[in-house]
């Protein structure tokens, strides 16, 4: 039996009014990509999914014959879609797209219904050879994320605005990378005696490795091995932290008392897993120093959002994921200098997104200069 969503789709799929100038109803590439970005942001808030169907019609269609084929394809798509569906060029004269909104694709049934209807109309308009050259692809938002997947879990097709922004900011991104490499090399050289002293203190105070290695989620959801000086006893139980993180993201966590913050912080305090030396390293942020190696590898930046652990990402709302998509994770950032653990999780994400929108080498310099003051003040640290 067809689902309610499928029956509704069939009822609503009345043909569009026929118009000789079919191209007048096809949005330009610039407008259509903007519509995808707006619909994605709307879906993040409303939790109403949408489907983007892309159909590759062939690259560069200069001849009159191919032009007629293209007109037939566009006309057929208009006949097979609803007036409420949005159709336009994902790539001008090459890839046409249709956005199906206000549907609930809880299984593959509705996707197959859409494809079946469009294929039926196209087969009536095109020859077998012409139809066989078409390439279809479906893209569902919100997409399923697996934070343990070693490959990129985000679908770049659904984020044309980020691709465009990265292309426009290639100079700033190049300068930022140069700052990362130069700054990390200089600091690793200057702080090498400090590294030796910290390593000796960790080894003398508790059993276990000097470095703590943990899987974190980086840019575009790609996992990487995150480095810190070990501040906890080896083989500890993380269940308490997992539960607190879940409550924090859900807005249900209470503030805990901490040194340097009279109103408390959104963070576990008096954690029995932390060693005496580890407590000092955390209060002074010296446990973060090995992350300069992550910066050299290109997995992190000096400035950016903090990289989350996989079980944190599993609890994210859809809009929270943007902090992983819009900027590379960093050692310090707006959250560290303006909010730290004094603010709730949603406000932390908003700070990260604000940084991504305003990101520039000069902003990175300002944040880096403010970081020592925030560390010394210890507000929000424990």
Q: How far is it from the N-terminal to the C-terminal residue, by CA?
A: 57 Å
Q: How does the helix and strand content classify structurally?
A: alpha+beta
Q: Outline the biggest β-sheet.
A: 4 strands, antiparallel
The strand count comes to 10
Beta fraction: 5-15%
Based on Cα principal axes, name the global outline: elongated
Low-confidence stretches: 1-21, 60-64
Fraction of residues in helices? 40-55%
**Spatial order of strands in the largest sheet:** 2-3-1-4
Q: How many independent structural domains?
A: 2
Report the radius of gyration as a whole number of Å.
26 Å
What count of helical segments does DSSP give?
A: 16
Order of helices and strands: HHEHEEHHEHHHEEHEEHHEHHEHHH
Mean pLDDT, all residues: 82
Structural account:
By secondary structure, the chain is an alpha+beta fold. It folds into 2 domains: 139 residues, 2-Layer Sandwich (Alpha-Beta Plaits); 210 residues, no CATH class. It contains 16 helices and 10 strands. The strands form 4 sheets. A 4-stranded antiparallel beta sheet has the order 2-3-1-4, covered by helices on one side. It has a two-stranded antiparallel ribbon with strand order 5-6. A two-stranded antiparallel sheet has the order 7-8. A hairpin with a 2-residue loop joins strand 7 and strand 8. Helix 3 packs across helix 4 and helix 7 packs across helix 11. It is elongated. The N terminus is likely disordered.
């Amino acid at each position: 039996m067809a689902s309610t969503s499928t029956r509704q789709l069939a009822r609503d799929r009345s043909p569009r009014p026929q118009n000789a100038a079919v191209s007048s109803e096809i949005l330009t590439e610039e407008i259509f990509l903007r519509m995808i970005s707006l619909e994605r942001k709307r879906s993040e808030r409303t939790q109403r999914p949408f489907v983007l169907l892309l159909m590759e019609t062939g690259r560069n269609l200069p001849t009159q014959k191919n032009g007629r084929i293209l007109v037939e394809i566009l006309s057929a798509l208009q006949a097979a879609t609803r007036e409420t569906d949005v159709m336009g060029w994902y790539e001008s004269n090459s890839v046409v797209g249709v956005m199906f909104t206000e549907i609930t694709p809880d299984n593959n049934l509705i996707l197959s219904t859409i494809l079946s209807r469009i294929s039926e109309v196209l087969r009536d308009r095109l020859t077998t050879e012409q139809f066989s050259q078409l390439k279809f692809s479906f893209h569902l938002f919100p997409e399923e994320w697996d934070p343990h997947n070693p490959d990129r879990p985000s679908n770049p097709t659904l984020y044309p605005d980020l691709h465009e922004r990265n292309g426009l900011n290639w100079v700033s991104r190049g300068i930022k990378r140069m700052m990362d490499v130069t700054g990390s090399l200089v600091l690793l050289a200057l702080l090498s005696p400090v590294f030796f002293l910290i390593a000796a203190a960790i080894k003398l105070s508790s059993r276990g490795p000097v470095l703590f290695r943990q899987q974190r989620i980086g840019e575009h959801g790609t996992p990487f091995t995150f480095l810190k000086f070990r501040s906890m006893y080896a083989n500890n139980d993380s269940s308490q932290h997992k539960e607190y993180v879940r409550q924090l993201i859900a807005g249900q966590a209470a503030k805990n008392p901490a040194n340097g913050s009279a109103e408390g912080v959104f963070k576990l305090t008096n954690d029995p897993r932390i060693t005496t030396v580890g407590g000092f390293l955390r209060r002074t942020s010296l446990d973060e120093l090995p992350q300069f190696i992550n910066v050299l590898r290109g997995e992190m930046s000096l400035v950016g959002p903090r990289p989350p652990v996989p079980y944190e990402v599993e609890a994210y709302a859809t809009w929270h994921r943007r902090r992983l998509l819009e900027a590379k994770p960093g050692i310090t950032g707006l959250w560290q200098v303006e909010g730290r653990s004094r603010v709730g999780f949603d406000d932390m994400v908003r700070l990260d997104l604000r940084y991504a929108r305003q990101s520039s080498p000069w902003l990175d310099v300002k944040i880096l200069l403010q970081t020592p003051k925030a560390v010394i003040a210890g507000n929000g640290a424990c």
